[in-house]
Amino acid sequence: MTDLESDLPDESTADAEATDDSTRDDSMGDDSASDEPQESVYRSPSNPPRQTASYLSRRLAAAGLRPVSHFGQNFLVDLNLIDLIARSAELRPNDVVLEIGTGVGSLTTRLSDNAGAVLSVEIDHNLHQLASEELGGRPNVKLLQGDALKNKNTLQPEIMEHIRDAMSRIGDSARFMLVSNLPYNVATPIVSNLLHELPPPDRMVVTIQKELADRMCAKPRTKDYSALSVWIQSLCEPQIVRILPPKAFWPRPKVDSAILRLDLLAGQRDKFVDLKYFHETVRALFFHRRKFLRSVVISAMKGRLDKSAVDDVLRQLGHGETARAEELSVEQIQALAESLRQAERAA
C-alpha cells in the first residue's frame, strides 16, 4: 500500500498544483510534535500492510485518524501500482533508499524487502506512529518524524547524514535511491535539492503530479519546457513509467499523477565546473522565457558583464537577435551558462 501525500503540507492534492511552498504544520492534532526529524521506536507488525480504500478507512478510524486535507493525504489503493513503483527502482541489497512520506508504511515494506537500508521520513506525527507499528521487526528500516525540508532550498541536514552513514556501512558498492510517493507541493524542491547533494541519488522513482512530470520531461519549443526541464535533464534521464488516474487513490485527487523514473547520467555532474552557478543561470534564463535571449541575459548579468561582453558570448555561440531561451536545447543552455561563467571570471 502506499501513501502518496502522507507528509503533504498545505492543501489537498485534490486542488494542489506543484509549488515550492514547504511551510507545514507537522502535528496533526499533536502540538508537541517537532519539526526536527526524530528516530522511531519499532514494534513488530503481525501482518504486512494492506492497501484498499476500505481497509485504510478502517485502519485510520481505529486509530482515531482520517485523511486530512491540510497534509493532502491521498493513499494509493492498488497494490499492483505500489509493486510497480518498487520494481521500477530495480533495488539491490547494496542500495540505500530514501522515502519521503512514510504514510502507513506500505511502500516502505516493499522497499525494505529488497534494499540494504531504508530511511523513511514522515511529517505527520500520528501517521509516523502508525507506520512504526506496521514496520517493526525490520532492522534495515529507520523512520524519522519531521519535515524533510529545512526550507524550500534545503533538505534537513540530518537526512543526508543518515544516508551517507548507511552508505559508508555498506561500502564502495552502495547506491543512493529516492523512491517515494512525493507530496505534490514539495516534489519540486525535494527532487531539485537532492541533485545538489553529495552524493546525489543514482536513481529516483517518484509519484508526482502528471503536470510536473511532463515539465521534467519536456523538450525545447514546447509549452512545458522550463528551467526545471533543463536542470533535470542536465543531470538525469527522465522517463514516465505510468500515468495514474485519480481513482488509484483514496481520497481521490482531481488531477492525474505519474510514476516518474530519473536515472542519474554517469559522469555528467563532473562536467560542471560550478553546478550552483549553472542552476542559478538556468533559472535566470527562463524567468522571462519568451523574451529575446539577449535581453534576458543582459538583465541577468547586470553588474557582472557589460552588454558588449554578453553580445560577444551570444555571437560566439551562434545565437541571433531573435533567439529565445525556450528554443535552446539542454546542451546549448549548458554551453551558454559555461561561456557566461568564463566571461564573468575574465571580466
From TrEMBL:
<keyword id="KW-0694">RNA-binding</keyword>
<dbReference type="GO" id="GO:0052908">
    <property type="term" value="F:16S rRNA (adenine(1518)-N(6)/adenine(1519)-N(6))-dimethyltransferase activity"/>
</dbReference>
<dbReference type="InterPro" id="IPR020598">
    <property type="entry name" value="rRNA_Ade_methylase_Trfase_N"/>
</dbReference>
<protein>
    <recommendedName>
        <fullName>Ribosomal RNA small subunit methyltransferase A</fullName>
        <ecNumber>2.1.1.182</ecNumber>
    </recommendedName>
</protein>
<keyword id="KW-0808">Transferase</keyword>
<feature type="binding site">
    <location>
        <position position="122"/>
    </location>
    <ligand>
        <name>S-adenosyl-L-methionine</name>
    </ligand>
</feature>
<dbReference type="InterPro" id="IPR011530">
    <property type="entry name" value="rRNA_adenine_dimethylase"/>
</dbReference>
<feature type="binding site">
    <location>
        <position position="181"/>
    </location>
    <ligand>
        <name>S-adenosyl-L-methionine</name>
    </ligand>
</feature>
<feature type="region of interest" description="Disordered">
    <location>
        <begin position="1"/>
        <end position="52"/>
    </location>
</feature>
<feature type="binding site">
    <location>
        <position position="74"/>
    </location>
    <ligand>
        <name>S-adenosyl-L-methionine</name>
    </ligand>
</feature>
<keyword id="KW-0963">Cytoplasm</keyword>
<comment type="function">
    <text>Specifically dimethylates two adjacent adenosines (A1518 and A1519) in the loop of a conserved hairpin near the 3'-end of 16S rRNA in the 30S particle. May play a critical role in biogenesis of 30S subunits.</text>
</comment>
<dbReference type="InterPro" id="IPR020596">
    <property type="entry name" value="rRNA_Ade_Mease_Trfase_CS"/>
</dbReference>
<dbReference type="InterPro" id="IPR029063">
    <property type="entry name" value="SAM-dependent_MTases_sf"/>
</dbReference>
<dbReference type="GO" id="GO:0003723">
    <property type="term" value="F:RNA binding"/>
</dbReference>
<dbReference type="Pfam" id="PF00398">
    <property type="entry name" value="RrnaAD"/>
</dbReference>
<dbReference type="InterPro" id="IPR001737">
    <property type="entry name" value="KsgA/Erm"/>
</dbReference>
<dbReference type="GO" id="GO:0005829">
    <property type="term" value="C:cytosol"/>
</dbReference>
<feature type="compositionally biased region" description="Polar residues">
    <location>
        <begin position="41"/>
        <end position="52"/>
    </location>
</feature>
<feature type="compositionally biased region" description="Acidic residues">
    <location>
        <begin position="1"/>
        <end position="20"/>
    </location>
</feature>
<comment type="similarity">
    <text>Belongs to the class I-like SAM-binding methyltransferase superfamily. rRNA adenine N(6)-methyltransferase family. RsmA subfamily.</text>
</comment>
<feature type="binding site">
    <location>
        <position position="76"/>
    </location>
    <ligand>
        <name>S-adenosyl-L-methionine</name>
    </ligand>
</feature>
<keyword id="KW-0489">Methyltransferase</keyword>
<feature type="domain" description="Ribosomal RNA adenine methylase transferase N-terminal">
    <location>
        <begin position="81"/>
        <end position="266"/>
    </location>
</feature>
<keyword id="KW-0949">S-adenosyl-L-methionine</keyword>
<dbReference type="InterPro" id="IPR023165">
    <property type="entry name" value="rRNA_Ade_diMease-like_C"/>
</dbReference>
<keyword id="KW-0698">rRNA processing</keyword>
<feature type="binding site">
    <location>
        <position position="101"/>
    </location>
    <ligand>
        <name>S-adenosyl-L-methionine</name>
    </ligand>
</feature>
<feature type="compositionally biased region" description="Acidic residues">
    <location>
        <begin position="28"/>
        <end position="38"/>
    </location>
</feature>
<feature type="binding site">
    <location>
        <position position="147"/>
    </location>
    <ligand>
        <name>S-adenosyl-L-methionine</name>
    </ligand>
</feature>
